[in-house]
Specification:
Structural class of chain A: mainly beta
Largest interface: A-B, 33 and 34 residues
Number of strands of chain A: 11
Number of helices of chain B: 0
Order of helices and strands of chain B: EEEEEEEEEE
Oligomer: heterodimer
Distance between the termini of chain A: 37 Å
Number of helices of chain A: 0
Distance between the termini of chain B: 22 Å
Amino acid sequence: ETGVTQSPTHLIKTRGQQVTLRCSSQSGHNTVSWYQQALGQGPQFIFQYYREEENGRGNFPPRFSGLQFPNYSSELNVNALELDDSALYLCASSRASGVRSGANVLTFGAGSRLTVL
Amino acid sequence: GENVGLHLPTLSVQEGDNSIINCAYSNSASDYFIWYKQESGKGPQFIIDIRSNMDKRQGQRVTVLLNKTVKHLSLQIAATQPGDSAVYFCAENKGSQGNLIFGKGTKLSVKP
C-alpha cells in the first residue's frame, strides 16, 4: 500500500509568480484535502476535493485553487504569490463514502515547502 | 528538515516517564477528535482518535481522554521513548464538515 506522495518537496518562487503542487493519494482513498502549515503553527484547511469537485473550503482567497483527477490525484495552484504564502503545503487523503466526508482519518504526505521571495 | 517546533509550548520528559499533552478545543459542536504526531521534515501522522460519545480510548502506549464539559482533550503516552520526540497536534471535526481544525501543537522532547 503506497502512502500519500507530494511533489516537489521544496521550491522557491518570487512574489507575483504562480505555483502548482501535486499530490498522489493513498491507494484506496478517494478524497484529497490540502492544508497550509506556517512555521510553528498547526495546519490550516485550504479545501477538499471529492469526485473531482471542491467539497468544502477554508478561509483562503480565490487565488488558491485546485483540481482532482479521475485517479484521485490532485493539484493545488496558487496565483499571484505573496510573501505570506511561504509555508509547508500538506496534502492528505481519506476514504469517504459520500459527499460529506467528515470524521474520516486523514493520511498526510510529507508536504511541499514553498518559499516566496 | 524544517523545525516545526518553533515558538510552540514544550514538554520535556525523561525516557521511561509518562507524558501528558493537553489541548483545549474550540467548538462545542465538534464530535470527532484526533491526535497527530509530526516529526521534523514529515507530515502529521495519525496516533489515535475519539468520538464525542466516549470519554476515554486506549491504544498501544497511548490513551486519549475527552472532557466535553470543559472542552479539553489530553493525550497520555506511557513509558515515553526518544522516538516519541515530535510535535503533537490535536484536531477537531464537526459533524459532516470535511475539514479538521488543528490546535497550535506541543513539542515533546524526551531526554535519554
